[in-house]
Amino acid sequence: MPKAKANRGGLKMISCPRCGKRFFSETNVLQHMNQPTGTCRFASWHEECSRSFSQARCPPSDNSVPCSSINRPPHFPSADSNAYQDWDLNPPSPEVHETEDFTMDAPEEVIPLVPGKFVEVYEGSSEVFPGGKSFMDTFHEDQYSGERRSNLYFPFASQQEWQFASWLLRSRLSLTAIDSLLALDILQGIPLSFRTGKQLHARAEVLPSGPAWLCEEMEPESPTKHPVHLFYRQLLECLQSLLSHLLLAPHISFVLRKVWTSAARVCRIYDEWLSGDRAWEIQDALPRGATVLGVVLSSDKTNISVMTGNRVAHPVLISLANIDASIRSKTSLHRYLLLALLPIPKFVHKTTRVRGLLQDRLIHQALNRVLTPLKTAATVGIMMSDPAGNLRYCYTPLASWIADTPEECLIAATSPKASPITTATSKNFGDPFRHPPRTSSITLSAIQRACAEQDPFDYKNFIKVIRALRLNGVVEPVWKGWPLSEPSDFITPEPLHHFHRFSWDHDTRWCILATGAAEFDYRFSLLQTLVGYRAFEDGVSKLKQVTGRDHRAVQHYIVGVIAGSVPRRFLTAICSLMDFRYLAQAPMFTDDSLTELASALQDFYDNKDAITAAGARKDSWEIPKLELLQSIVPSIRLSGAVMQWSADPTEHAHVQEIKVPARAGNNRDYYNQIARHLDRAEKCLRFDIATYMESKRGEEDLRVDEIEGNETEQDKEHEPDEEEFPTDHLAATRSPINYFTIADALVRGCIPNAPRPYRTFSTATTAFHLSTKPSLRLSVDEAATVFNLPDLRAAISEYLHRLESGMPHRVSGVRSQQDHQLPFDRLQIWCKVRVQQMHYHSRQTPDTLQTLRAFHPSTVNLHGLYDAAIVNADPDSNWPQRGLEGHSVVQLRMIFRPLHSKDEK
Predict the structure, then answer these.
(1) Would you say the C-alpha torsion 681, 686, 690, 692 has a positive or negative sign?
(2) Taking a C-beta distance cutoff of 8 angstroms, is the pair 719, 74 a contact?
(3) pLDDT tens profile 128-166
(4) Which terminus in the chain has less CB density within 10 A, N or C?
């Protein structure tokens, strides 16, 4: 039987100063606050660490003067701050600027800058005008705003009732389940204004609404088995909802800029869409003072039903390229709105190819119906309100259409045998150069030629004509008549499919064929997987239903797995593709890094014949994704970093916007129930934000009234507290642990109560963290026996000798066998250490934590568990500037600290 716990109730309890958790001693409190994953540790050190870290930073040099000349308004984060990681909890309050002539110059635009960078801003762009409506203005203009003067939560009786109703509306409970819940005796004694699910939904319809949903019956060219309906929202309302969102105020920009690494303006920097050449060219074509709103669309089919039913939806999502890429790309922030649900009809035509042609035409017909307002706004412009409540004269070019390769061909109106971006055909997909871009005029000319040769409604004969012209049969493509929107420009590279799916479909297949499936799987099974990495104990050749996370995981190992079993040039080709994909995922590029990126791709083409020679690929290189890689460098120069166009957030949006609402219904009329579910969820979200802001404003007014007349001159000098925002609607605000900052604060003495010696310390490139308590305390000889290190004493002695004499330390080598005397005899030993480095693509951003293990042999691990690492023993080497020069691949055998006699006491 387990031993009973001792009754310690009579002991004095000590509470954690942060979370209030009670402990029996001060040591336990310090151990609790020193936990690496604990929130109390970060909360208690955050302020002091941040202060010491900011003081340690050097002041801007003279080269940063041009950047400082651009004034930064309040509430906008700098480029090296952590504000881009999550929402800013203190956005500026809505304010309408008034002028006598009802126009004004553009406000000093907020541009995220880094000291030492030089920025050229597009002069005369994005002027603002009075008369717009902010988010709260729209809330106050609701038809029931009069009732909300006495009851803010109308049509609900109180805040508590609204919280309960909001939970019910957002849950997946059916009407029957809600009726059963409300019928419970425990709820009968609570006064509620609704007693059934229908009454609850009826009251929810009274809430202020977002973009309205519409349903329209369509008339396809050919008969279908069932009527065809198009569900969509008012497009301009969706755009206005994104543009005027209260929480987006610090994270949206309107002024174009060109960023340079020096005042000579030789090397450009590309990150956001507004920093690319295309946005600049679009602004050149617009009237002075116009605002460019880069529209981002995404479309792809997704499964609704699970296991059975074969139900598929075809959603269209919309966002804005003006929103910071770090915000737009974060899946938890839901910055993609569901715009439309495209019909997926079943045509009665007998020919499969004709049915495909009819479906493609119907998709473009539906898209034309939904996106026509955007075309009009891109032609003549439209006045829209920004988050501050000012009006801007906006034009809406198409910045990007995020889709996989088949969907890109559908949008571009090309066949799968042709590139949707360039004039290359399937026979040219393996060429080591980029073909001319496929402009709209080229495609429209081919469509006109096909229609002139054959009637487009004579489907069978028309298919023969379009096959030769590499078209898909669409006569009226959606982008026709859309100003400033070329398919070769807005069809941007998509990393999820063009990088990771390509690697799985082709790289992995080539390696399996060259190595042999059995040998390939055996090599994967031998890998010792690090903490946090995917393990493939049974290999990968027989995997089914592989996810994007698995695609990424295989890329971590594949070069090392095939090394030694394939020809050198084969290995070089695979490694070059991996380098290209990794470099292309950077959040920021310079002209120099783009040259390096193009060089990595060229290395693949220089060695790709080795793949054919190894029998892993036939002579033909008809791979559409391979040809699309040639367009990545030009796309970065035009539209900024490619990672902002990844389908990861849109795929996640399919779950939240499509699958969850569909599975909350009764498996009938999916589109109708999805629209109703999202409409209620949007109303709840907007009502939550509005009531929170209004309640805080009321509390502030009441406080001001109480102290009015008693305010002293000293009180007037104090600035009012910044208004807090509801964290319920924001992403998790917990920042990742930065061991570099913590180690710096420890060295500066900012944390006097931290246990000594410090368990967190750092070098110029790497930070280390050990737990407070070591795993073992052994003598040197005992540790040598337990960890099977017979030369441990000699290795420590040699290290101390070299350290004292200033000689460089050797990572490995033969140790002398003479008796070595050490100034200590016992060791503190840890079985794992947490390691952190700066991100490769951003040397100011801490990377994710890595855990390295060094477990001695035991019954669980008969031979121990020792992770491998790359260490730098050469003080002259510098990562990443000099690559791996001076580095060694080692096995971590023991993590220890000498234990002196005073430490024992």
Answers:
(1) positive
(2) no
(3) 999 888 888 888 888 888 898 899 999 999 999 999 999
(4) N
